What we know:
This protein is of the alpha+beta class. The longest helix has 31 residues, at 284-314. Helices cover 21% and strands 32% of the residues. The strands form four sheets. The protein has a seven-stranded antiparallel β-sheet with strand order 12-18-17-16-15-14-13. Helix 1 packs antiparallel against helix 6 (327-343). It folds into two domains: 7-121, Rieske [2Fe-2S] iron-sulphur domain (Rieske Iron-sulfur Protein, 3-layer Sandwich); 130-343, Alpha-Beta Complex (Naphthalene 1,2-dioxygenase Alpha Subunit, Chain A, domain 1), CATH 3.90.380.10. Bound molecules: FE2/S2 (inorganic) cluster and fe (ii) ion. FE2/S2 (inorganic) cluster is lined by residues 48, 50-51, 53, 67, 69-72.
Amino acid sequence: MFIRNNWYVAAWPHELTGLKPLGRTLLGEPVVLYRQADGKAVALQDRCCHRSMPLSDGAVVGNRIQCGYHGLEFDCTGRCVLIPGQADIPAAARVRSYPVVERDEVVWIWMGDEERADASKIVPYPWHNPGSGWAHRKQLYTIACNWELMNDNVMDLTHLAYVHRNTIGGNPSIHFNAEMKVTREGESIKAVRWLRDSTPPPTYTKAIPGLAATADRWQQIEYFHGLIRVYTGVMPVGRGGGEVPAEPGRDEHGLRTFDGITPETATSMHFFWSAAHSFDIDNPATTDLVYDQIDVTFLEDRDVLERQQARMSALPDAKWVDIRNDVAGLQVRRLVRERLALDGPAPSKMAA
Ligand code: FES
Ligand SMILES: [Fe+2]
């Protein structure tokens, strides 16, 4: 089951080069993405209307995509505009097109009811943009797990103490005893935790020379369908506990991860992530160091998630037991169920 009426990350902008189309399964549907000669990003169903050849095996020709089998060409609306050796083009010669918006260095796609696509609903991520005061690097992993397992993982930061003990983790008791406030606003859930007077994790101590031995740490996780924004930071001991600073101030250091979660199939997902830092932003070595540290943690998560999915697939009827620290993850699962019920079943030709 997928939430269809929602904006999802389809690609990073640099993946669309304008030369070779990109084939990618999103929400169970094969999609071809490409960049027109004029720079516009396009998404169509990845199936030629002639004999079902994947269009992603074809070529980008100017502002069109050309099928690699018999040369039919399509425009960005999915309409066939050229059939070699034939003047008349039947009205039915078209493929589905999807609304695409490129914003904040993200290629967003809408795969639900087209009339409901509203670009103003795209969750902002200004920290990718030049001049934002942040520097970042991006990555994509395709992970063999159901997308809701990644939601659970990001919403539950207590696993840091076990899965990520060598990077962003820290002392288990600090994690389990941290204050956590979970609030819901519309279709978003925000969890805030303060870990006061605690040892900063290795990611910070490696990236920030001269950081004090202890600090007040904040962790803010904002869930939206398809995107979780994680904002963490350190500030001098004694200052923490109130509102999380909108932007890190003097003596404060922030890290942000963009966690784009796009289902591929029922048991696989695309994880589009970026790691951004608010300090030493003109030094690419710091960006690489932060990236490398976060990369290790996400590879650790990927390993856990794939093992979980393998067990779930082997024992599909086995039940789960909830614990106290599942509070934020369970709220997200409820929110997802509410939305799935609202949207109703997917059209039958879609494999959802
Ligand atoms: S299958 Fe695409 S042109 Fe024939
Ligand atoms: Fe993790």
